[in-house]
Each structure stands twice: as structure tokens, then as C-alpha cells.
């Protein structure tokens, strides 16, 4: 039995968050019913949150089902060899109406030991930012565990962290151990390792509707934090109709692909490819068939699908391993 090759899309997995808003509906037409929807998990195999296919022959099947039947064809020869039948990345859109908590993610070694999970290296592409929006990312100057703990206890943590103003198109690459928070008024596309391990260290002293504050993970975070300064912002080219490198790390490669007209794409079968549409509309054409996409769509191209055409006016992120 062989895999029927076509571009695959999924039902979004919507997450309510204390800091969420309505932009996933107003900006992307996601079918949200809550005014505090913070995340749309576009492509996930996190346990309990596995994406379900929403188009074509495999509609209604989970991504895990498809990978277990066709591991090389979906994941790619190189990825199957390295990860078996695990899908190694997680793709999200995040709407931060309010500040997210200040948090950190552990590296592979720590996450494996404590949680039997991958670590969480991630990148952010800023899709929309209100006037004055900012993120918190890393330390202003090299710090130490002692200085960090003192400022955390004194509620002056922000005084030693770096706040960076952001605008649409900005990209930040966060290695594990980088302390961070997405600020209010920002919509981002997030690409990360398949992991849902977050150590929350400060949550702005807020409480939910029941008056409860969210759990903090202060002790767990101490050994996970990189107390040195880090350079997280990525500068990249924006040449039309080609893949412009943005992030190249051991966990994923992300290119910026501004599409204007028609482009023929040829790939190897080493890795799957994912396109996230940041702006505009485009078609993918394959063997005389055409699929249409718009801003906010996330498309999985199985590794065995090696030749196709893209046509339209859109800004895409192109991701593979």
C-alpha cells in the first residue's frame, strides 16, 4: 500500500489561556468561540493533542496514524532514521492579548531526565504587533543564579531582563535556557521541538476567575536557565520567489519565502516540509490538481511529495529538518 500524495492540513487545536484574545478569529478566521483563545496548535503530536487531518483521502485520521503506516513517505528517510515514528516539531499561532508569564524551557538532556521529553528550542515570527508591543528575552548583562534569585524574590526580575520592542516580520530564535515572555499585543507564529515542557517563574501576580494563581516552577527552572546574555534576533534577506535562510539549527531549518507569481519547487525525500502562510493567498499545484491557501494556514508536505508548483502573492515560512 502506498501513500496518496497531497498537501495535508489539520483541524486547529485551540487553547484557552488567561492571556489570550480574539485575534486568531479576526486575523486568521479560526473558528474560536472564546474571547481568551491564546493558541492554535496547527500541527502537533504532543500526547493528548495530536493533530487530525482535515482534507483529502485521510480526513479524520490522526497524524500519528498516517506516520505509523507511512513513516518514510511522511517524515522522510533522514527523519525516520533519526526519530522513528515521532514527529519532531510543533507548530502554533499565539495571540497574546496580555503578557505571557516569564518562563524558560529545559534542554534535551534535562527534559529527558525529568520528563522523558524533548527539550524546547523554539523560534518566533512576529505576524502582528500593536504600537509599543515588546517581548522579554534573556538577560541585559551576564547574570548569575544568585542575582536572579534575589531579583525574583524582590519582584524586581524585569530590572535585569532585556525588553525588546517588536514589529511585524521580526524573528527571534530562542535556544533552551533562554528566559523569555511574549508581551501583550503580539501575534506570533511559533516553531518548536515537540515538547510542552515550560517552567513558569513569574506570572505578574495575576489570578484567574476563581482567584487562583497559576503554578510556578521556580526550583525546576534554576538549573535550566542560561544566565549569560544571548543574541536572539535574526536578520534575514527577503528576495522574492526563493528560500531566504532565517534559522538553521539542529532541530529545524526555517526559510522566509516571499511568493510573487509562480515558482516550481523540487525537494529530496530526506524530510517533510511545512509551509505556514504569514500573509496573502497562494495555490499549490500538483499533477493538474490545485489546492488554495490563505493567511493563517499551515500545510504539511509529505517527504515523498518532491515536485510541485506554488502560485500566488503570499509570504510563507518554509520549514524542514
Automatic annotation (TrEMBL):
Record flagged with keyword Zinc: yes
Domain of life of the organism encoding this protein: Bacteria
Pfam families assigned to the protein according to its UniProt record, in alphabetical order: MPI_cupin_dom, PMI_typeI_cat
Keywords: Isomerase, Metal-binding, Zinc
All copies of domain Phosphomannose isomerase type I catalytic, residue ranges: 12-117
Keyword Cell cycle: no
CDD domains documented for this protein: cupin_PMI_type_I_N_bac
InterPro entries per the UniProt record, alphabetical: Carb_Metab_Reg_Kinase/Isom, Man6P_isomerase_Firm_short, MPI_cupin_dom, PMI_typeI_cat, RmlC-like_jellyroll, RmlC_Cupin_sf
PANTHER family membership: FRUCTOKINASE (PTHR42742:SF3), TRANSCRIPTIONAL REPRESSOR MPRA (PTHR42742)
Protein name, entry field: Phosphohexomutase
